[in-house]
Inverse folding.
C-alpha cells in the first residue's frame, strides 16, 4: 500500500515558477515508477511527466517539455515537479501517481497503468 500526498500548489503569475512535492508512504516507493498528471476544469486528466525508480529516465508531455522537470529523492520518499515559465493553460489540479508492479523500471504515461494516486494540489496561473 502506498499513500501519496501532494503539496506546493498555489497561485502564480504567468512566467513564474512552482515546485510541487509528492510525499509517499510505504517501503515500495524506491521501486516505484512515478508520474505527474493534471486535470483542468472540464477536461480529461492528462499526462505531464514520469520518472523511473532511480531517476535515470524521465519523460514529459510535449506541452511541458523544456519548462518542467521531474526528480525524486528516494531517501525522502518524495518526487518533485519543478515548473518554470508557467502559462495560464498550465492551470489545473496536479496529481502524482505511483506504479509499483514493475520494479520502477519503466516510464508510465497512461493513467490506468498507475496503482496509487494522491488527492491533488491546485495550480493556478493568472495575473
Amino acid at each position: 500500500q502506498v499513500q501519496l500526498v501532494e503539496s506546493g500548489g498555489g497561485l502564480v503569475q504567468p512566467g513564474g515558477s512552482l515546485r510541487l512535492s509528492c510525499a509517499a508512504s510505504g517501503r515500495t516507493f524506491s521501486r516505484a515508477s512515478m508520474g505527474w498528471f493534471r486535470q483542468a476544469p472540464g477536461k480529461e486528466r492528462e499526462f505531464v511527466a514520469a520518472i523511473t525508480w532511480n531517476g535515470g529516465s524521465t519523460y514529459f508531455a510535449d506541452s511541458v517539455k523544456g519548462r518542467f522537470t521531474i526528480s525524486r529523492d528516494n531517501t525522502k520518499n518524495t518526487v518533485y515537479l519543478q515548473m518554470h515559465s508557467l502559462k495560464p493553460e498550465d492551470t489545473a489540479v496536479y496529481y502524482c501517481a505511483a506504479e509499483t508492479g514493475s520494479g520502477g523500471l519503466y516510464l508510465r504515461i497512461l493513467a490506468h497503468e498507475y496503482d496509487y494516486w494522491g488527492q491533488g494540489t491546485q495550480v493556478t496561473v493568472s495575473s
About this structure: The chain is about 0% helix and 45% strand. The mean pLDDT is 96. The first strand starts at residue 3 and ends at 7. The CA atoms of residues 40 and 60 lie 18 Å apart.
